[in-house]
UniProtKB/TrEMBL annotation:
Keyword Transport: no
Domain of life: Bacteria
Domain GGDEF per the UniProt entry, residue ranges: 330-464
Protein's UniProt name: Diguanylate cyclase
Molecular function GO labels: diguanylate cyclase activity
Keywords tagged on the record: Nucleotidyltransferase, Transferase
EC number(s) reported in the record: 2.7.7.65
CDD domains tied to this protein: GGDEF
Domain called EAL: residue spans: 473-523
SUPFAM superfamilies referenced in this protein's UniProt entry, alphabetically: EAL domain-like, Nucleotide cyclase, PYP-like sensor domain (PAS domain)
Amino acid sequence: MATSFNNDPSQVLSNVLNAMEQVVLEVVDEDTGTVRLIEGENQWVRELFPHSKDNSVFRIDESTPFLQDFLIDGRLIWRGNKNARIRSGFWTEVVSKDKALHLEAIAIRHASYNLLIISNQAEEFTFRQNTLQSARELLQHNDRLVEQNEYLHERLLAILKKPTKQNNILTALTKAIENAGFAVLITDSDLVTIIANTAALKLFEQDSIQDNLSGEDINKKQSKPMNVILHLLENQLPEYERIISTKSCWDGELCWMSPPSTLKWLKVALYPVVDEFNQVKNWIVFANDISNLKYLVQRNEQLALQDMLTELPNRIAFWQTLEKQIATNTPFYLLYVDINEFRRHNEFYGHDEGDKLLVELSGRIKRTIKESDFIARVGGDEFAIILTQIDNQQWCEDIVKRIIDCTKKSFETRKSGSFNITISIGAANFPRDAQSVEELMKFVDLSAYNGKKVKANSLQFYSQSLKDASHKLIEIENDLREAINNDEFELFLQPIIDLERNQIVKAEALIRPESSRKRYYLP
C-alpha cells in the first residue's frame, strides 16, 4: 500500500522532486547568480552545491562554469514581466576525480517568482550512450557480414565455375549457403531463382494477421525473395538495366515497403557469374536486413547533427559541411543571418513565440534558396547558409534580396497578433576572402555584426577595410583597458553655470588622460 501525504503537501513535492532527481532553486539576485535551495535534496545536489545546506543563500560561481554561463540567458527570463522559461540543454559537471554529473537546467519566471530547476539526467545520458554503443555493435556486425559476403562469394564462384554435374553443383551450393546468417540466392542468367537458403525465405516473410485469409491470400503474403528484390531494383535503381546488360556487380541499400506492416531496409549485393565466353551463367544475390542499423544511425545522426527546434542541421553539421565544401576547392559564398533585436522580441512576446519565429523563419529561408544550398542553425537566432556554385557578387546580392523579401511578410503570433522583423546578413567569398572554416566564419560574423548597427534589413560583404576598422577598435579597447589598469586617467568636473543667476547649477564629469601620458582618440 502506497504512503499517503495528504496532510503534508510540501512533503509530497519534496519526495516527487527527489524521485525525479530534480532540485528547485530560488533566484535571490540574478545579477550576481545568488540562489537559495528551496526544494529537493539528493547526494548529487550536495556534491554540486556544497554550500546549499540549511536554506542558506549561495552563489553559482566558476566552479560550475556551464551553469554560470547559462545564468546570462536566464537573466533575460527573470528580468521580464511575463511568465517564461528557457532550457540549457545537457551538460556535464565533474564533481570529483572519479565522478561526473549529467545535468539539465531550466530558468523559469512564473507569477513574479524567479526559479532555477536543475535535473540529474543520468538515465537519459546512459540511454544515449547505450544507443551509441548499440550502433557501434551493429556497425561491427555489418563489417563482419561484409567479410562473410566476400568469403561466400568467392566460394560460390569456385563451385559454379567447377566443371561437374548439375546435381552435384546444387548439392554443393545448398551446403555452402544454408548456414549463412543472411539471405543467399542463386539464379540463372534470366534472374530466375535456382536455389535460396532458409534465411532468404525468412527475410522476405511479411508480418500480417493471417486469420480469415484464404489460401490464395496467404500465398500472396509469402513473397518470393527474388521477385521482391527485382521489383525494388527496377523502382529504386535508375541504373538497374545498365548493370544487368553490362554484367556488372552492384551493392547498395533498398527500402522494402509493403503495407500494412512491412518496412525493411535491405543491404543487397548482385554478382554475375560468367563463362569463358563472358556470357552470364548465373547471378549470386546476397541480402541483409539492416533496418536496426539504419534506425540507430539515423537516430544518432539526428541527436548529434540536428537542431531539435527547427529540424535544420546544427552548428556541428554545418562545420562539417563547410569543411567538405572548402575541400572541393569550388568557389562559393557563405552567408550569416542574424535576427535584429531578437532578445527584445523574446522579452515582449515570450520564448514560445520566439521559438515559433525561428521555426517559421527557417522554413521561409529554406524555401527561398536552392535545394543544393545548405542552411543550418548555428546559434540562438543565427543561421548560416552556403550558396554553392556561386562566384558572382551580383548573383549573391540577388539571392540575399530574395531572403530579405521573404522576411518582410508579417509573422503571426498564437494570440492572433502580428509583428515584423529585420535581419542582418554578412557575406564572404571562398576563396577570395578566406581559405579556412575559421576565417570564413569569423569574417561573415564580423560583417553581419557591422550591419546590425543600422537595425534594419542589411547586407554587408566582407572587406579589408571592415577588418581594419575592427582591428582598430580592438586596439583602442585594449589601450583603454591598459590605461585604466595603469591609472592613467584623471577625473575633471566642468561646471555648468546659470548666467542669469550667476550660479553653478550642475557639473559635467569628464575623464581625460593625464597630460604626461598617452592620449586616446576615439573614432
